[in-house]
Model the fold of this input.
Amino acid sequence: MVPAAAGRLTHDEIYQQPDTWPETLARVRAARLDALPPPVLTGAGTSAYAAQAVEPAWPRARAVPSTELFLEFRRYLDDDGLVVSLARSGDSPESIAVVSKIQRALPRVRHIALTPNPQGRLANWPGVQAVLLDPRTNDRSLVMTSSFTNLVLAGLALARPAEVAAALPVLARAVRDALPQLDEEAARWAERPPSRFVALASPALKAAAREACLKVLEMTAGRVAALAETYLGLRHGPMSFLQSETIVLCFVSSDPALRRYELDLARELRAKGLGRLIALGPAPPDDFDRVLQTPASALPDWLRTPAEIVFAQLLGWHLSRRFGLDPDNPSPARVISRVVQGVRIYDED
Done:
């Protein structure tokens, strides 16, 4: 029996998100980092997906996970450049290795860090300009939820501040109003836990699909296998992953030109009896088992990740409890930890 209080931290951190977003925008504005050149955006795990969610909003930017960047940074950086690191704790070995190795080899490269942890090593590293987010978003749960959406929003605000400021009231109000319904829906879908979960998205929302899969995978301790793909990519082999009971979460584009391809694939899955389909965004009800749409769904896709990821966070939470786990600490064998362990950083030869 799962204790009633199990997962309370995570649940609260999911629910606080729309109330924290205005503060994130205010803090990025206060940093006065205007007219930045296209950066290399980096982070590890969920923070890497946050960096990938920012990339579509920033022309010529490149998102590279820190787990790869510190190994081969010369592939992505010239003597001059900008690295924007996104991190919840700022204490992972790869986050520090990115900065320290690049500083030694390419000393003219500029470093900016987005983090909610003022005590983290990254926030206090010499030569790094830290933008400190609301400490409430330094999630105490093992899994990242409000830290993810606030890191995404902070990165988007660096890239396109005026457009983010204009859209923020819609984003925040849409999620705040929809949270009770999304919670109920997630609980209902968790009543029949699947063995497999798929998230589909076109490129601008692909990072949201990856993060959705990670939340389900982490919070179920791997009991639900998860796969993120594009709609067009699914046909090229990965469709074999789907079964009739697979939950398929479809991030549906607000762009009608892209949506045609997405709906074609959804109809094909329906015809083949593959998956139970949930649409997030503007979609015909007849093509899906459930359509979840808010005013945020009409925004350009590059703006939608903070709003559209919330249902997947709640689904992961309810699946976790359904499996008898604690969503705050869903890895009782300590297979994973809040701050990654066991990474040894080697000096350059």
Observations:
- The mean pLDDT is 95.
- The chain has twelve helices and ten strands.
- The domain at 168-322 is CATH 3.40.50.10490 (Rossmann fold).
